[in-house]
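Comment on the following before class.
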Amino acid sequence: MKKQKLFAPWRVAYVKKVREGDNECIFCEKPEEDNDEENLILKRGDHNFIILNKYPYNPGHAMVVPYRHESNYSKLEKEEVLEKHELLSKFLEAAKEVFDPDGFNIGINLGRTAGAGIDDHVHTHIVPRWEGDNNFMPVISNTRVISQSIESSYNELKKEIEDKKL
């Protein structure tokens, strides 16, 4: 069987950052840039924001992130934790309407060993899931197939959040 190649050139920026040990914190920088569409920020709260994952596992893969740079979940203030869960709930409403998923994975990876790509700024992942969305590709070629562009996901979710005033 001839080996097939699947090109994903958008991943090179992420790979280079990891290799170079880039120490900048995107979760601190992106909200300060005041360019929400380019930075994929869907909603801002007083203490947290919702941002789409630039390197998603599935369409609509988002994260709820506190503005304050903190790696220890236990050190988040009560207001940060409460708002984090309120924003998570609002995102779930919007994602259900836009994507009609069969379920969600929601989780926090605390520490690099636990799988955190950015381990010094706590964040909560929300990944929409569909029956059959995990096929043979990850198993035989360590590759995921994303069925929707990040721009399309952003535009649909942003519209839903604004239209419903979530």
